[in-house]
Amino acid sequence: MRRTGLTELPLHDGKAPQWLVKRMIGLAKEITTIIVDEYGREEFLRRISDPYWFQAFGCVLGYDWHSSGVTTVVTGVLKSALKEANLGIAVCGGKGKASRETLSEIIMTGESFNLSTSKINELQYASRMSAKVDNTAIQDGYQLYHHAFLITEDGKWAVIQQGMNINDRSARRYHWLSEHVKNFVVEPHKAIVGDVRRPFVLDMTAKESEECRKTSVDIVREKPQRVIRMLASIRPSYQRSLGEWISDKASREDRDYAVEFLKMPLSINWKALKRAYEIQPRNYEELLGIRGVGPSTVRGLALVAEIIYGSKPSWRDPVKYSFAYGGKDGVPYPVNRRAMDESIRILREAVERAKLGDRERLEMLQKLRRFVS
User: Fold this and answer.
1) Taking a C-beta distance cutoff of 8 angstroms, is the pair 298, 204 a contact?
2) What does pTM read for this prediction?
């Protein structure tokens, strides 16, 4: 891995061969059992929501560290391994069609863990909102296609989800951890990792977007007819002055991208806005949770809030390279060597104690050493 801590996830086609998946399930079961026995279920969630540890774990199991497939395969492998191991942790959802079964799987898992109905509803809400935030509140050009929701029998949770950008065939992974989430719409992620930093990304979860969030809520509490007039008043005349949002230092390609991105959406879900007016949301989280409020509506409200009321949202890409550890050159901040060493120590000890053949154990330790060399 590059020592800058950059996590590259090129989009790869195809499937992992069955012989490899079967072997990975066995290895994952051994390693996870030891980690949970030694450190507990909550610590395992903390580790799996750490992007560096997640990459190292996938590498040790035998998958390409740099592939987008490490996300889908590792979480799929964990789903099977944890079911066999009976450790009080389960994975719901997965890739594509499997992601649409997440909510029903949460119910089944919650009932098997003897969780209360209110706790199961809370977990379903966390699943829906984490997906809604990453698809709608953060508009970075990546469409979610994978959603894995991990639950412990104590009701703690973590989310590993991934989106793809079909234009440059790259992927971006989003990590959530229940103990880290204080508010679903204010910088809730444990980490967002990817290869490309986009020049202009609407991030309504940024702290800088606080006033824009409040103004967006105020706007939808107005009668829909007034919202229609506000949208009409800035389309298309104001679109000629979008250059003021773009740095003079930006390249021509970035300026063209920005002008296209900052255009007022051609379609707004008026039924959703009418529904929002009837509901009168108290805050941005409630607004975002309303059925039908999607990316176009969120972006339209953000642009109205900025252009008419001066409440600016964040247009800075929230992706963090090696979020948990930083980089050797201090970007985004210096490496936390103690945390990095602790992650590798836990993995190494789990591998050494696993009931594996000498050859398998040696191969896994070699992969781990290559990962941090």
Assistant:
1) yes
2) 0.80
